[in-house]
Every structure is written in C-alpha cells, then in structure tokens.
Write a structure and sequence with these properties.
The protein is of the alpha/beta class and 310 residues long. Helices cover 25% and strands 24% of the residues. The protein has seven helices and 16 strands. The protein has helices at 3-34, 71-83, 108-115, 130-134, 147-155, 199-203, 250-256; strands at residues 37-43, 54-59, 65-66, 88-91, 104-105, 124-126, 159-160, 164-170, 173-179, 186-189, 192-194, 212-215, 229-234, 263-267, 270-274, 292-298. The protein has a six-stranded mixed beta sheet with strand order 1-16-2-4-6-7, with helices on one face.
Length: 310
C-alpha cells in the first residue's frame, strides 16, 4: 500500500468512526431524549359525520424513567397537549418504563402529577399497555397486575377504560369512545401471551348508531375491528423505533408486519392511526422516528374556522 493510499485509508477510517459515533450519540441520546414531533392528522373516515368536528390529543407510550422521560419532560408534553385546546385527550397505555438502561425509575405517583394537569372539555381517558401489566415502574420491578397504574390514573382524574365504552357529546352530537384491555397482558412463556381484551364484549356496550372510536394499545386487533368503528387509535410499536434509510424498520416488521407499524392505515375501508409514542422499550434508542404527540382532527373543518393543525 502506497503512502498516499495509506493516508487516504486512515482518513476514511477515521471519518467513518466519527460518523458512526455521531449517529450512535444521536440515536441513543438526542432523538429519544430531546426531540418531540407534533404530528397532525385531518380525516373524516367512513362512519364519522362530516359535521361532527372533534379535536383529539393522542399521547402514547410514555415509558416514564430517568433520564429519558422524567417528570419534567412529561409535564412539558402535557402542557403542549393542552396548548392545542383539544376537545378530548386520550392516553394509549405503557406508562411504565420499557427498559433498565436508566439512572432511576419514575414511579406511578410521580408521573401521575403532570398527567393530572391534562385538560379537555370532554375529558381525559386512558387504556393500559403491556408494560403496565408485565412489571412495575421498570422491567426489573415486580408486577402487580397494573394496580399501581390504575391507582395513579384514578388520583390523576383520568378515566381508565378496560373493555369499556362511554357515550360522549360534542356540540349536541353523540359519539362512543371505546377502550380495549391489553391484548398481551399475561406472558405465558417466551413469545406466547394471553390477553385481557374483550372486543366483542366492548362492542356490545354500544347501544345506538352514534359513531365510535376505539382505543387499543397494540394494533394486532385491527384485523378483527368491525366496520362499526370509525377509527382505531393505537400505540405500542413506537413507529418502529429504529427506521433505517432505504430499509425501513426491520425489527418492527418481524413483530408487527410491514403495514401495521406507523401512521394512518386504511384496510378494507377501516381506518387506524398508530402513534410513534414518546418513550422507548428494549433499549433507549430511536432513529428516524422521533417521539411524537398526535393532534387529530375528525370531521370537516367548519366554514370560517382556521385549520387548527400545526
């Protein structure tokens, strides 16, 4: 190898090493801990009246822990959600931390304080996620069948929906909000789970023909959701968490399928939105899918009113 060739080689190797370190620092430090994206959606799916104008703040997968999702950051996110003046706020489960690469846990009574500040005229509603069932504040803490999360939500004045439905009204127009129990709440063995969900029983609670929204932590249920539901809102996937250029989210695709990872999905006339969520699981890494607060507007914008999306 000539002198010039060696110099070029080591220069290139050094640049590659620095670039790799920079990308690693971004993926493990900046994107999961510092970035936040507000993602707007405007749609009027089949079964949702065009004149029923509803603005929903969607919060998913908080995964509270230090230093990535401390109380101060949760408070800032809740205040940001309030700033959009939503009619309704929903939280799609997984309050508990998702990995042990932390400096300290954030216990339910701690994250409940900023969550209690969420405000919406039609209320704040939540469902549980798998991590809320599987363990305590962190994966190394003993599970309590999500009782600590239930207590925290109660004290935060957040209505928990577990295979339950509530009939709400906006401007005199009714709609149903349904919340499903977690679909993989009980780990039987590696890769095998039993759920706490009851889609059929939840649907039976809908007593009239008012439009319906379904909250489900995991998108697995979407294939079974009837056309009676105008829109399904999910989290859990973290939008893939790691999305590589030209490749996508290979780790998520093997778990959720290529088409049930992120965004607005339409299949056989049925609509679902999967949020990228806020926190992380398995490892504190995000790349190409920053933490996300979803602002959803349903129904056509009323004439003379400015578009509320950012």
């Amino acid at each position: 190898m000539s002198l010039i060739t060696r110099r070029r080689f080591w220069k290139g190797a050094g640049a590659f090493t620095l670039a790799t370190a920079a990308l690693g620092g971004y993926a493990f430090g900046i994107e999961p801990a510092l970035r936040l994206q507000v993602t707007p959606y405007e749609l009027t799916p089949p079964g949702w009246p065009a004149d029923l104008h509803l603005k929903i703040a969607v919060i998913a997968d908080i995964h509270a822990c230090e230093p990535y999702m401390p109380v101060s950051r949760i408070r800032n996110i809740c205040e940001l959600a309030n700033s959009f003046q939503p009619d309704l706020t929903v939280i799609l489960g997984d309050f508990a931390g998702g990995h042990n690469f932390v400096t300290a846990p954030v216990y339910p009574e701690q994250w409940a304080e900023p969550v209690s500040g969420l405000k919406a005229p039609l209320g704040v509603y939540a469902i549980l996620g798998n991590h809320d069932w599987w363990h305590g504040a962190l994966p190394k803490f003993r599970a309590d069948d999500a009782e600590s999360v239930r207590r925290a939500l109660f004290h935060a004045r957040v209505k928990l929906l577990e295979n339950d439905a509530v009939r709400l009204n906006k401007d005199g127009k009714p709609f149903w909000l349904l919340g499903l129990g977690d679909q993989i709440a009980y780990r039987v063995r590696r890769g095998q789970y039993n759920g706490a969900d009851d889609l059929e029983g939840t649907m039976k609670l809908v007593k009239d023909d008012a439009p319906a929204l379904l909250l489900a932590h995991e998108p697995y249920v979407f294939d079974r959701v009837p056309n009676r539901v105008a829109l399904t809102l999910c989290g859990h996937t973290h939008g893939g968490q790691v999305n590589l250029p030209f490749i996508g989210a290979p780790f998520a695709q093997s778990r959720f399928g290529k088409n049930h990872i992120y965004g607005h999905i339409v299949e056989t006339g049925r609509h679902m939105i999967i949020s990228a969520g806020l926190g992380t699981s398995i490892a504190p890494v995000r790349f190409g899918r920053p933490p996300e607060l979803v602002m959803l507007t349903l129904g056509s914008a009323p004439q003379g009113v400015l578009n509320p999306n950012v």
